[in-house]
Design goal:
Strand content: under 5%
Shape: globular
Radius of gyration: 18 Å
Number of strands: 0
Structural class: mainly alpha
Helix content: over 70%
């Protein structure tokens, strides 16, 4: 992959990829690292990378694999040391200073509740939800990104919706 090509991908899909990284990691600092590592990995692979179809889903696949590797390493280190290191900074920490109407405030609160409920889902449910609803990827591409069968993606989405429905019914 040439530098020009990588720059085009950053320009075209950078915001979507960064948003995905924030939602997956729950931390801006970790999202920054994952975002940079994704493009570094693509640059390292160089000519080995041949993107035939959707570049966005390919980059998310790379990011997801890097995230899984990081989680795996962190888990092993935690088992060895017995120390749990986590960051509780959420990806949605932007403060709005304008006067807002009651409807907007209620909508923001509901979105916050939904976002919090999605964040609490285990990775195997949260990632398909993010890819399907946030990134609007079709089921087939999600299956490719996650390296699981399409039926598994459907099942995980269904179960995630069921879990979210139960959590949100209690809150709302």
């Amino acid at each position: 992959m040439k530098q020009e090509e990588l720059e085009n991908y950053i320009y075209a899909y950078g915001k979507d990829l960064y948003s995905f990284c924030c939602c997956v990691t729950h931390s801006r600092q970790e999202a920054d690292d994952l975002y940079q590592d994704t493009f570094l990995k693509m640059y390292e692979l160089g000519e080995k990378v041949v993107i035939r179809s959707n570049a966005k889903s390919f980059m998310m696949s790379v990011a997801l694999n890097l995230y899984r590797n990081h989680k795996r390493k962190q888990s092993v280190r935690q088992k060895i040391t017995g120390i749990n290191i986590s960051v509780d900074e959420t990806a949605d920490s932007i403060v709005c200073t304008e006067a807002e109407t009651e409807e907007i405030m209620v909508a923001k609160e509901v979105r916050g509740m939904v976002r919090a409920a999605v964040i609490q889902l285990p990775d195997k449910y949260r990632i398909p939800v993010l890819l399907y609803y946030m990134e609007e990827l079709p089921l087939q591409e999600i299956a490719t990104v996650m390296q699981v069968p399409e039926g598994t993606v459907k099942t995980r989405l269904h179960r995630a919706k069921k879990i979210l429905k139960e959590k949100l019914e209690d809150l709302l």
